[in-house]
Amino acid sequence: MTLSNSSQVLLEITPRAATITLNSPQTRNALSAELLVDLVGAIEKAGESKSRVIVLTHTPLVFSSGLDLNRVASGSIDLGGLAKVILALRRVRQPTIAVISGAVRAGGLGIMAACDLVVVAPTVDFAFTEVKIGAVPATVSVPILARVGWSNLVAAFITAEVFDARRALEIGLVSHVSEDPHATAKGLIDSICAGGPEAVATTIKILRTAAEGAYEKNLDQMRKLSEHVFGSEEAKEGIAAFLEKRPPLWRL
C-alpha cells in the first residue's frame, strides 16, 4: 500500500485500486487552484501505478460545490485547472469510478462526468449553478455532453434547477445508484480485476475513443469561453452578489 497525501487531496495506492479522495470539507471541496493542481497530480500518479482501477471519492458531506468563487472574485484561480483535471481523467489507462454520497454542483459535475463509471447514493443531488452567477457551464459541458444528449440538459443548464439521482441515472449522467456506493464500487472493482488487465485497458481505450470526436479541441474552446465569461461584468456582479448574499443586479 502506498499513501501520498496533500492537505486537500488524499491518494492511496493498492494493486487493486488507486483511491483519490477530495478532502477539503471545510470548503465543501470547492475547486481552488491548489486543490485542482493537487488533484491533477494525484490522477497522474495513480495512472502511473499498477493499480487496476482508479476511484475518485470524497470526505463527507459534499463531493464538490464547484469553483471556489472567493478565489475567482480575487482573480487568483486558474480557470484552466478544471480542464486539466478532466483531461487527466481521460488520459489514464485504467477504468475510473467516481463514488459519491454528497451533493455535486457546477465544476464538480464536469469532474464526475469525466469518470467512466459513476456510482452515487440515492440522496445525492446535482445542479449546474453557473447561470445564477452570470457564468456558463462551458468547460463541464464537454464531458457531460459526451455522456448525455443535449435535450436532456436544457432545463438543468438554463434554470440551474436541482435534480436528483434518479433523474441523473435516467439520462445517463451516472451509471449506478446505490444505497451503499462504496460497496457497489467494490463489486465493480472485483469484476474489473477478474478480467485480463490488457483486455480491460484496451476496452476502456476503445470506449473513450468512440466518444472522443473533437473532445480535446472542444475542451480548449470551452475553457477559453469560460475564462471570457468569468471575466465579464455580468459574472463579476453575479459572483459579488453570491458572496454578499444578495440578489444580483443584472443589466439588460
List the helices and strands and how they pair.
Layout: E1 2-5, E2 9-13, E3 17-22, H1 33-48, E4 53-58, H2 69-74, H3 80-91, E5 96-100, E6 104-105, H4 107-113, E7 117-120, E8 125-127, H5 138-145, H6 154-159, E9 163-164, H7 165-171, E10 176-177, H8 181-193, H9 197-210, H10 215-230, H11 233-243
Parallel strand pairs: 3-4, 4-5, 5-7, 6-8, 7-10
Antiparallel strand pairs: 1-2, 2-3, 8-9
Describe this structure in words.
The chain has one domain: 2-enoyl-CoA Hydratase, Chain A, domain 1 (Alpha-Beta Complex). About 45% of the residues lie in helices and about 15% in strands. It contains 11 helices and 10 strands. It has helices spanning about 35-50, 70-75, 80-90, 105-115, 140-145, 155-160, 165-170, 180-195, 195-210, 215-230, 235-245; strands spanning about 1-5, 10-15, 15-20, 55-60, 95-100, 105, 115-120, 125, 165, 175. A 7-stranded mixed sheet has the order 1-2-3-4-5-7-10, sandwiched between helices. Strands 6-8-9 form a 3-stranded mixed sheet. The longest helix is centred in the N-terminal third of the chain and has 16 residues, at about 35-50. The termini are far apart.
